[in-house]
Design a protein that fits this description.
There is one protein chain. A hairpin with a 6-residue loop joins strand 12 (about 270-275) and strand 13 (about 285). The chain is α/β, with parallel strands linked by helices and about 450 residues long. The chain has a 6-stranded antiparallel beta sheet with strand order 10-11-12-13-9-14. The protein has 2 domains: about 5-160 and about 325-450, FAD/NAD(P)-binding domain, CATH 3.50.50.60; about 170-320, Elongation Factor Tu (Ef-tu), domain 3. It contains 14 helices and 16 strands. The chain is about 35% helix and about 15% strand. The mean pLDDT is about 85.
């Protein structure tokens, strides 16, 4: 076992990923999680690595940004992906999990590891705990819903500047309360295989139903921002009601797009709401893309306008919550340690990424850099051509902090030559395939050179 001990604050995806990676490489870890004493508004479970917004870890297709990121995380021995594949539920080309089984399994992996000490308590002063547990390094992986006390510590100790940003959660509906006569199972762009049930349930809308629905969304009562703040939402995760305010057709070209979802008679609906299984039993569905600011009574009233949901019973209603992100470019080194205090690291969403896999990947990245440092090796500079390297480069170079998902737009451009003119309709897919191939080859070469594992 390596002599140094690491204190990790936060038992979410990034914290658990970093803890397990370090512990598996002989580093003693003390992991603190506050949810049993001071849960944030989005948390419902008492176990670690809770997925609060959705049960989807996005695409597994390696020609997508999320698929590429999963390829790299698996190469790094990701605990999160290992357990996700053990607890997955049907979701087409996406990796979606049973949230309770996933969280429970992660907790079991963490608590059973001989090199990890898990403590359920709120952290007020990380430096005090570092001395108490004789740790030499700290990883702050508390996520964008960091407790007020720790947020104050970050402001007072590291920087008084932060970025506030609002996120929204989609509702979950009881499967038994749906009217299946008005719904149909269909995966987007996929032909139905006889004897197999599609992973997604769809609620079709005609033009009149859709327009009435959008009007109600625009006029509905919303939860107001607190303390005279202005809502600032992540562009790829906008509330459905905000989409409606941006334009009548905005939802229909986003989460309610009917493309690739023909009904049994072959007709394409004017719009469609997709519902994804929440667990393997299929006794609950979440409304895909239906994050919302609507008040609880308005959610029940308006979402029951969706065909098949007239008598819907909601297991969880949607909500909004404030997220906090630090200015990574200003405050952090490229290994995500603090410039003023290089023994303190940040990992996960709090340092400027958005999404489950992105957050977990940052936990792996910080653990990788700490391991190299413990072995007295230089910081590993990750190639921009790979997913994790592109994410790090983005958050460390953007002038104004703004959370981001992994996407091919973060990677260096690639030239496709005359293929663009010859195969214009297939150009984008070809370009992504080439970028994914380059990324995987580059990442594999990088790992062979820099990876430290027992």
């Amino acid at each position: 076992m390596l002599k140094e001990k690491v204190l990790i604050i936060g038992g979410g995806l990034a914290g658990c990923e970093a803890a397990f990676k370090l512990a598996d490489n002989g580093v003693a870890v003390v992991l603190y999680e506050s949810k049993k004493h001071n849960p944030n508004p989005a948390q419902k479970l008492s176990t670690l690595a809770e997925l609060v917004c959705t049960n989807s870890l996005k695409s597994i297709n390696e020609s997508t940004g999320h698929g590429l990121l999963k390829f790299e995380m698996e190469k790094l021995g990701s605990l999160i992906l290992k357990v996700a594949n053990m607890t997955k539920v049907p979701a087409g080309d996406s990796l979606s999990v049973d949230r309770e089984r996933f969280s429970k399994a992660i907790t079991e992996q963490i608590t059973s590891h001989k090199n990890i000490e898990l403590i359920y308590d709120e952290v007020l002063d990380p430096n005090f705990l570092m001395q108490k547990h004789d740790c030499q390094r700290i990883i702050i992986a508390t996520g964008p819903l960091t407790t007020p006390a720790l947020t104050d510590w970050i402001k007072n100790t590291i920087s008084s500047e932060d970025l506030y940003f609002y996120d929204a959660i989609a509702p979950v509906v009881d499967a038994d309360s749906l009217n299946y006569d008005k719904l149909y199972f269909k995966d987007r762009y996929k032909d139905q295989v006889e004897g197999n049930q599609a992973d997604y349930l769809n609620a079709p809308m005609n033009e009149a139903e859709y327009k009435s629905f959008v009007i109600e969304l625009k006029n509905a009562q919303k939860v107001l921002a607190r303390n005279f703040e202005e809502y600032i939402f992540f562009e790829s995760c906008l509330p459905i009601d905000l989409m409606a305010e941006r334009g009548e057709d905005t939802p229909r070209f986003s989460c309610m797009k009917p493309v690739g979802l023909p009904m049994e008679d072959g007709q394409i609906p004017y719009a469609a709401v997709q519902l994804r299984r929440e667990n393997l039993l299929g006794d609950a569905y979440n409304l895909v893309g239906f994050q919302t600011r609507l008040t609880y009574p308005e959610q029940k009233r308006i979402f029951r306008m969706i065909p098949g949901m007239e008598k819907a019973e909601f297991i969880h209603l949607g909500s909004v919550h404030r997220n906090t992100f630090i200015n990574a470019k200003k405050l952090l080194n490229f290994d995500l340690s603090i410039k003023k205090n290089p023994h303190i690291y940040f990992a996960g969403q709090i340092m400027g990424v958005e999404g489950y896999t992105e957050s977990a990947a940052m936990g792996l990245y910080v653990a990788f850099q700490i391991l190299r440092n413990l072995h007295q090796l230089e910081v590993g500079h990750w190639p921009l051509e790979c997913g994790i390297g592109a994410l790090i480069n983005h958050i460390m170079t953007q002038e104004v902090p703004r959370p981001t998902n992994i996407n091919f737009g973060l990677l260096p451009r690639i030239e496709v030559g005359n293929q663009k003119r010859i195969h214009r309709s297939k150009y984008k897919n070809l370009k992504k395939e080439m970028m994914a191939k380059r990324a995987k080859e580059t990442f594999s070469e990088f790992l062979n050179k820099y990876m430290i594992d027992r």
